């Protein structure tokens, strides 16, 4: 764990991207190890579970998504329609081609069925024990999680390497925390005031 940093969010992102690349090189089996730590019995039921298409050294969510699909969840991937709107989640199957969305991330096409997830596996650059995550800086996940929470129950799991933990992620009023963190070393359910 690293101490709270006086770095700007932009500088912290750059430092954490470098750290994540190092962690990915050190532990190529981290995604499979993380999936084994996912406590399916601790998760709320989710007819639809959202993952993401890993970019760069992001931890690959597919081992986790396979476990969720095995318990009956339909798997969806995010697609950005533009830079200001919440993400749309579309069904993805192994035989389906992906195309770049507005954020240039491979995503299901508009022809794929759009569904509302009850469980989201979210990528991150850094995280803390209070459930705050540092993302890429576009605000896509903060907007999206806020919109999904306004619609109904939602459980969010931040997925990353254990070495991405820092003491405190810089926070702004719009930042949306996650409910749990999953890494290659274990699962941490975030304690809330209601727990």
Describe this structure in words.
This protein is an alpha/beta fold and 195 residues long. The chain has one domain (9-189): NagB/RpiA/CoA transferase-like (Rossmann fold). It is built from 4 helices and 11 strands, in the order H-H-E-H-E-E-E-E-E-E-E-H-E-E-E. It has helices spanning 9-26, 30-37, 62-70, 140-151; strands at 48-50, 74-79, 88-91, 98-100, 106-108, 119-123, 126-127, 133-134, 155-159, 180-183, 186-189. The strands form 3 sheets. The protein has a 7-stranded mixed β-sheet, sandwiched between helices. A two-stranded antiparallel ribbon has the order 4-5. It has a two-stranded antiparallel sheet with strand order 7-8. Helix 2 packs parallel to helix 3. The protein is globular.
What is the compact description of this entry?
This protein has 195 residues and is of the alpha/beta class.
Helices, strands, pairings?
Layout: H1 9-26, H2 30-37, E1 48-50, H3 62-70, E2 74-79, E3 88-91, E4 98-100, E5 106-108, E6 119-123, E7 126-127, E8 133-134, H4 140-151, E9 155-159, E10 180-183, E11 186-189
Parallel strand pairs: 1-2, 1-6, 6-9, 9-10
Antiparallel strand pairs: 2-3, 4-5, 7-8, 10-11
Helix pairs in contact: 2-3
């Amino acid at each position: 764990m690293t101490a709270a940093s006086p770095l700007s969010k932009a500088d912290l992102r750059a430092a954490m991207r470098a750290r994540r690349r190092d962690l990915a090189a050190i532990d190529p089996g981290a995604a499979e190890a993380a999936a084994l730590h996912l406590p399916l019995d601790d998760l709320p039921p989710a007819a639809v579970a959202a993952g993401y298409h890993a970019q760069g050294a992001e931890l690959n969510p597919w081992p986790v998504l396979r476990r969720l699909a095995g318990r009956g969840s339909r798997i969806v991937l995010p697609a950005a329609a533009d830079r200001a709107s919440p993400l749309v989640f579309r069904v993805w199957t192994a035989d389906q081609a992906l195309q770049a969305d507005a954020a240039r991330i491979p995503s299901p096409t508009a022809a794929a069925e759009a569904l509302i997830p009850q469980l989201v596996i979210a990528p991150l650059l850094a995280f803390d024990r209070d459930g705050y995550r540092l993302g890429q800086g576009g605000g896509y996940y903060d907007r999206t999680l806020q919109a999904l929470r306004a619609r109904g129950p939602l459980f969010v799991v931040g997925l990353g390497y254990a070495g991405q933990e820092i003491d405190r992620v810089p926070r702004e009023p719009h930042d949306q925390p996650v409910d749990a963190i999953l890494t290659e070393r274990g699962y941490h359910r975030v304690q809330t005031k209601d727990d």
